[in-house]
Amino acid sequence: MFILLPLYIYPGDSATAWSNVTAAIAAYPKVQWQIIVNPSSGPGTTSFPTDKNFITGISNLNKYTNVITLGYVDTAYANRAYSSVTSDIDVYAKWASYTKANISIGGIFFDDVTGASAATSAILTYYTNASTYAYAKIPSTVTPVVFNPGGLGPTVLFSYCDTMLEFENLVSQYNGATTINTFPSGYVDQSAIIVNNATAATNVGSLVHTMAQYGVEAVYVDYGACFYMGNPTGCYNIFSLSNLKVLAAAVTAG
Question: Is the pLDDT of residue 229 over 80?
Answer without folding.
Answer: no
